[in-house]
Amino acid sequence: MRKPLLVFLTLTVLISGGAFLPSTASAVENANPALVAYYFHGKVRCATCQKLEQFSKEALNANFKGELESGKLQFKVVNVDDKGNEHYASDYKLYTKSLILSLVKDGKEIKWKNLDKIWEYVGNKEKYVDYVKIETKDFLKEAS
């Protein structure tokens, strides 16, 4: 009984073109986002580093849900220690865990900014979220 149900559900998803899958999958695959927010970390992750990622994600989800769903804004978490990601350290002059905003036009990065005050505000979630919100909003204005 379980096997026919599984086959039926799989076929339904395939026939529907994935219409029943979460909409965030299509946003992540958008080849031309206007803005990418990268959270960069290494293999070693302390509680503060994990909080930086969590606060960044929460700030973007709370304030830019529509932009995230449409793909205009993407949030990507990148381990710079993984093979193939080493170039980010030199591209963005990274020396620690960082949140980078990257403005993209016609598939090419035209401007970026390291939101380095996240370290200053990690002890105050409200300030952190406001900082990320203001900086992201400014970049999105340029993307329009």
Description:
It is a single chain. This protein has 144 residues and is α+β, with helices and mostly antiparallel strands. The chain has a single domain (22-143), classed as Glutaredoxin, CATH 3.40.30.10. 49% of the residues lie in helices and 20% in strands. The chain has seven helices and four strands. The protein has helices spanning 2-15, 24-28, 47-63, 65-70, 87-91, 118-121, 125-143; strands spanning 35-41, 73-79, 98-105, 108-114. A four-stranded mixed sheet has the order 2-1-3-4. Strand 3 and strand 4 form a beta hairpin. Helix 3 (47-63) packs across helix 7. The longest helix is centred in the last third of the chain and has 19 residues, at 125-143. The protein is globular and about 35 Å long. 22% of the residues are buried.
Topology:
Layout: H1 2-15, H2 24-28, E1 35-41, H3 47-63, H4 65-70, E2 73-79, H5 87-91, E3 98-105, E4 108-114, H6 118-121, H7 125-143
Parallel strand pairs: 1-2
Antiparallel strand pairs: 1-3, 3-4
Helix pairs in contact: 3-7
The fourth-level CATH homologous superfamily is Glutaredoxin
Let me know the number of strands: 4
Strand percent estimate: 15-25%
Number of helices: 7
* Radius of gyration (Å): 18 Å
As residue ranges, the low-confidence spans are 1-30
Strand order of the largest sheet: 2-1-3-4
In the CATH classification, which architecture applies? 3-Layer(aba) Sandwich
Largest sheet: 4 strands, mixed
